[in-house]
């Protein structure tokens, strides 16, 4: 759909550089994948076919242990592990990441341990941001971007990301009230978002609604504690 409509695909870092230079086409697309599951490899040939690169954000603890220790995924993870998709739930390894980079993709940080960053004290926040970037850069040569775990970042987190040396960073929220270098909003797409549902979700009206006061008000409503990290 996007390729047919004339969209041009970029990695997250390249899109930000072009934005700063004033050369980012109006119809631009950045495809991102959080967490670094092996299932990302299934998307590579599909995206290659339409000429789109992507950015995958990896978690250090997940790559090292193979266990995604963050909240909100238990139900679907258990279901996936009990199915034929279990191998896809493993983390990407360095060999796979190196091949993705060679193929024009970007590897960014999703922190060391996937915490909810706004709740961390300054020292732990800096550690999560700085050491995860260094860890990736030492192996792949660079790490320019970060996706905040749970898609959440306040102004303090954004400032810390800039201080940690990232070029840009992205969130993932229902409201797109903030669109700045260290809090670029994203639109989440799931497997059910196809056909008419996809068309509606990416329509100009839908995107305008995400910038509306109603969406901002809904975003400010306190969420249940179940999505917060385990105490």
How would you characterize this protein structure?
This protein is of the alpha/beta class. It has one domain (8-227): Glycoside hydrolase/deacetylase (TIM Barrel, Alpha-Beta Barrel). 41% of the residues lie in helices and 10% in strands. It has 10 helices and 7 strands. It has helices at residues 12-21, 40-50, 60-65, 74-81, 94-102, 122-140, 155-163, 195-201, 204-210, 213-220; strands at residues 8-10, 28-30, 32-35, 55-58, 106-109, 145-147, 168-170. The strands form 3 sheets. It has a 3-stranded parallel beta sheet with strand order 3-4-5. α2 links the parallel β3 (32-35) and β4. The radius of gyration is 17 Å and the shape is globular. The model is unreliable at 221-231 (pLDDT under 50).
What value does the Rg take, in angstroms?
17 Å
Give the mean pLDDT. 88
Please give the CATH class.
Answer: Alpha Beta
Q: Helix/strand/pairing class, anyone?
A: alpha/beta
At CATH level 2, the architecture is Alpha-Beta Barrel
Overall body shape: globular
Order of helices and strands: EHEEHEHHHEHEHEHHH
Oligomer: single chain
Strand arrangement in the largest pleated sheet = 3-4-5
What's the helix count?
10
Task: Summarize the SSE layout with pairings.
Blueprint: E1 8-10, H1 12-21, E2 28-30, E3 32-35, H2 40-50, E4 55-58, H3 60-65, H4 74-81, H5 94-102, E5 106-109, H6 122-140, E6 145-147, H7 155-163, E7 168-170, H8 195-201, H9 204-210, H10 213-220
Parallel strand pairs: 1-2, 3-4, 4-5, 6-7
